[in-house]
Amino acid sequence: MQKRLLKFLPPALGVLVLGGIAIGLHGALRKVGLSDILGALAATPRAQILQATLLLGLSMCVMSGYDLPGVLFARRCEKFPHLGLLRVGLASFCAYALSHVLGAPALSSAAIRFRLYAQWLVPPSGIARIVALSGSSFSLGLATLLGGLLMFAPLSVPVFGDAAPELLRLGGALLAGLAVAYVLAARRREALEIFGRRIPLPGARLAMAQILVSCADIAAACGILYAVLPGAPGLTYLHVLSLYIAAFASGVFSGLPGGVGVFDSVLLLGLSDYLPPATALGAILLFRVMYFLVPASLAGILYAGHELWTHTQGQGDKE
Q1: DSSP H or E segment with residue 215
Q2: Global confidence as pTM
Q3: Of 4, 116, 206, 306, whose CA is between 20 and 30 Å from 299?
Q4: Residue 292 in 3-state DSSP?
């Protein structure tokens, strides 16, 4: 009986969270029309669009380097082929950008990586290492950044309301401690035994590289959002970063394509204390187009072109 009740606990909590979001959004959007949103988009200065575009370029460069720590770790496997930076960048960028719109990011990005690296004759053990490191990097970066915010700037994290700064700092120390513990474990051990399974560790340098790449990715993406938001009293980059982390993590863990609905709702509710709903929603929409749709469209073209080229080469070899 207890096991049956536990099965229903996660979906029940999910329904409660969605219900709370729906109630909050109903109040925030009650007097917002489509013309208000379009007007907010049109009012975004060109200088802000340019700044966001430059940050988008930086963000896509980071996306292309997401797999580098995993590839360097996988090279320790036997019979690992030579992979140039272009191939690594292609796999990394396509997996990262397309997973934003395909949904279930962990599964969709892993499937894309398996497809591409298998074509390049990377052994299964090597692919598994690349997928493991690339998949865990986001969580490590998330814990590091959020932990740092809670420890050193707890008042800039409005997500937790009026919680005591001392409690927030303690929570931040615990989160940052997870990343530190991972680096120390990777430095001292070659593998961990978890539930009878041996999990290889990459070493301290690659573990730190994972965290740095992920932190750079999150910070650059948040920079795009901050660039398209209009100025408002009290709305600093650190405030937006805390809201972005909460929104993006909620969207990723929801498994929905691009975190649709969840990501936007958390951001909109968090920004409602600083900006009119129509203005905030217009900026969020512009951010979605820039950070989700533009990289995903480019990644789709690159992935389709690669598949076509591979198929053509295969046909040529058969002839």
Answers
A1: helix 204-228
A2: 0.81
A3: 206
A4: helix
